[in-house]
Design goal:
The chain is an alpha/beta fold. It is built from seven helices and seven strands. α2 crosses α7. The two termini are 27 Å apart.
Amino acid sequence: MKRIIYVLCFFILVLNWSANAQEIAILKYQGGGDWYANPTALPNLITYCNNNIDTTINSKPETVEVGSSSIFQYPFLHMTGHGNVVFSDQEIENLKNYLLSGGFLHIDDNYGMKPYITREIKKLFPNTELEELGAEHQIFKNTYSFPKGLPKIHEHDGQRPQAFAISKNNRIVLLFTSESDLGDGWEDPSVHNDPAEVREKALQMGANIITYAFKN
């Protein structure tokens, strides 16, 4: 039965993506975490990608809820926040079907999200561990080169930046970036007053993620 559901979801994705081949949505979740954090981040990343890597993404990303069938309209979902995240059983099933049918989810920890989101990821894929990506992975070199792997954008706990992934059929379906805070680097310059070179690194890494999601 589950196989039939996955097949149906796959065809829904194909039909929707033919009209939304390069679209991104913000994932709204329950639990109290601020899913709406960094409001200028994704529009700025989209503008950067459209100007530099020939994407044609809508400059105003939509917001979709985890349990909604609307997520199947978007090949790329972005999720961020600082606090608690809770997925219901129905949301787990919906998001899992989306990911196994070809969708891509990027979760960027805006600081304080990690213990909650890793718990929910374990519910999504109880038999699959998050795997840290080495600096040699193609996501760090497909468009812009990051020979040391995920760049450090903002300091929080003084820990090194890490990129973790869940892969299915040799393709990343879920990417979790931690201790980097890419989203802060994508925000308007006036928000965090980051140096231009730091914002550029964040935007370039974001472009690499989008390149990977759209081409794999």
